[in-house]
Amino acid sequence: MRVETLSPFSDIPRRIEIEGPVFAGGEGDVYFSRCGEFVVKIYHDQVLPRDKEKMLHRVLFLGKNLGEGSNLLCWPLALVRELEGKRKIGVVTKKIPRPPFRELADFIFSPREFKKAVENGANWLQYLQVAHSIAKTVAILHGKGCAHADLHFKNFLVDIRTGRSVLIDLDGLVVPGFLPPQVAGMMPFMAPEILIQRVSPSQKTDRHSLAVLLFHTLLFRNPLQPLICYDPEDQERDEKSGWGEKALFSEHPFDFRHRPRSLGVPLFQRGTLSYTMLPPTLRTLVERSFIEGLFMPEKRPLSREWERALFASFFSLWRCARCYQYFFYPYWRHPGLRRCPFCGKQVTPPYPLVGIVYEQKSEEVAIQKERVVLGHGFQVVGKMFHEQSKDIFGEIRFRDAENVYVFQNFSPGIVTAFFPSSFGRRLEEGEEIVLAPGMILDFGGWYLEVVEDGRFFP
Amino acid sequence: MSGFVVDSNLAKMFILEFWMEVVDVEEGLEMDVTLGEGLRRLPVYLLLDTSGSMMGAPIQAVEEGLALFKREVEKDTFARETVWVSVIVFGREVENVTQGLIPVEKLEIPSLEAGGYTPLGAALRLLLDSLDRDVKKAVKGGEKGDWKPLVFILTDGKPTDDWKSPRLELLNRRERKVLNVITVGCGPDIDEGTLREIAVGPSFKMDADSASFAAFFRWVSQTVKAVSQSLSQPQGENTPAPMPVPPDVLQYIP
């Protein structure tokens, strides 16, 4: 079959040969192009909103300058004008190769999917990369003033081996005053106010969906999963109130109705991951999304906040000696309670270094940023301080014989070490300096204070 | 230095675009994981005719069809985690082959033997038993219960025993109700009127060749997949299940 396309902003062939339909949905049929490059979706005429074509035009217009988002978003490239000479409405998008890409649900639906991925060589680290990539995608979308309105784990295609993700189904975008809401979403990912008062989707409801999605990606369960029945007569009403007016965070501090029984038990021992395995910044965001902001949309964290917190969290990873999974080194707990959340193995000495990053704001003011966890062989990179930086300042080494960590300087004339006794010294190239709690390394506007050195725990 | 993992460069992944490393999981480490709590199951009942007239190619086609059904459903994440199956055969013997509901991955394809009459009524009785025994009931403030079961009946003839009273019981159940009973007749000997009467929902007829059986089971698995997905969407439930377009070999009986 052949479709005629219209593409004002990109060079898509005017005529595309298609095969299919490969998938028949409620909204329309999906075809693949014969060249294997495009996906074509043709809408059913009878369910089409009146000005769908106008809306699609606007979506197309919004996708003009995507920049770094062009790899993260599968934006519509062209409109369909005719199918086999008949007037039809549809969109053309890039085809995402599957495999390696698969639906996110295939990796995170339950711990079983995680187990399968681990057996195929994936690591929890890649899940964190996927979560960061999802947050970034939504942040780009929100930065354009749009809301996706239908975020869930079937709309993200993921390549788990490289931790990349692509958002699809962008033909239902919402822009206030510009594009009216068209879709409602999938119940476990919908903000409660949509189910209660039929509020139309917006960025605020997207923030809820994003928080649920990120939680689901990292912990393999829905944070709001109702565990008890509210209406034995009618299952639909039951689901609706369970996700809607009776919605409750599974780890609410006082209300235990939806608390999983095996919460906190290591995942590989038939357990359930708790959000307390996340570092404090992410934990705060979870609490803001599901405790404070569950029924108060304005309190929900922005997508950009998630993205920054997830990026910073990469520097507090540690690796389990038993199951080889990366996890957040729980420096916020007593050393004896620091365990791998997956297999339950206690962290063994030598413990890593834990430092605090400070940013100099003015001459007198330096603000505290995230903590970083450093072990033997870890590089101290500019990324710890600033996302765009590409510097490498030096490396952390563990000296076996003396049982101490040292910092080896790579960058002459930049790094200054301040000792607890308050004098500072500029480090030479290749110089090694023994790290101890209370020491501060100055990287020019950025500071790294050593809090724990593997022997001393404040 | 036991338990110390030398991590050459975690930071490297921020400098290199692609960063990959495959580590074998330690031998002896058992990864015992559970399915998430609070997920409802979707019970699917397959009532298959194994009467004498199914002897030969048709009964083999049904077996192959079951294998196809299992493969197709397992491919879909949603369906794999939510669908529980029960297979009831009726012919010389009336038997619940799976002994109640089992997860679809545990379904072993039974070797079916054709013979005897078409005791659909007895099969419906077994279905009723299994509904009472295996399907979880919702309790207010307690367990959430299962989704409403999907029932498919495949037959190639007229029922030879009393099927009206068990069907009436099926309809009049107050709890653990069945909303969808889909009947499919194959071959020339079917009685369209009876099929239509048994069904709660649509009923179909088709030929008794292996291509038709394959198409039928593929359609069943598509329906199961579609239903398991639609359940998480608002406006799912009490409306009849959304069904994918049946293949051409299935003819709708009006």
Labels describing this entry:
heterodimer; A: 458 residues; alpha+beta; Phosphorylase Kinase, domain 1; Transferase(Phosphotransferase), domain 1; Tumour Suppressor Smad4; 3 domains; 6-stranded antiparallel barrel; 6-stranded antiparallel sheet; B: 254 residues; alpha/beta; 7 helices; 8 strands; 32% helix
Outline:
Chain A is of the alpha+beta class.
Question: What does it look like?
Answer:
The complex is a heterodimer of chains A (458) and B (254). With 458 residues, chain A is an alpha+beta fold. Chain A has 9 helices and 21 strands. Chain B is of the alpha/beta class and 254 residues long. Chain B has a single domain, classed as Rossmann fold (3-Layer(aba) Sandwich), CATH 3.40.50. Chain B is built from 7 helices and 8 strands, in the order H-E-H-H-E-E-E-H-E-H-E-H-E-H-E. In chain B, helix 2 runs parallel beside helix 7 and helix 4 packs parallel to helix 5. The longest helix of chain B has 21 residues. The N terminus of chain B is likely disordered.
Walk across the major sheet of chain A and give the strand order: 1-2-3-4-6-5
What is the percent of helical residues of chain A?
A: 10-25%
Q: Which architecture of chain B does the CATH hierarchy give at level 2? A: 3-Layer(aba) Sandwich
CATH topology assignment of chain B: Rossmann fold
Radius of gyration from the alpha-carbon trace of chain B, in angstroms = 22 Å
Q: What is the total tally of β strands of chain B?
A: 8
Uncertain parts of chain A? none
Q: Give the biggest sheet of chain A.
A: 6 strands, antiparallel, barrel
Quaternary organization: heterodimer
Mean pLDDT of chain B: 75
Give the CATH topology of the largest domain in chain A. Answer: Transferase(Phosphotransferase), domain 1
Query: Which CATH architecture of the largest domain in chain A?
Result: Orthogonal Bundle
CATH homologous superfamily caption of the largest domain in chain A: Transferase(Phosphotransferase) domain 1
Structural shape of chain B: globular
Number of helices of chain A: 9
The poorly predicted ranges of chain B are: 1-25, 236-240
Chain pair forming the biggest interface: A-B, 75 and 59 residues
* Rg over CA atoms of chain A: 25 Å
Looking at CATH, the homologous superfamily of chain B is von Willebrand factor, type A domain
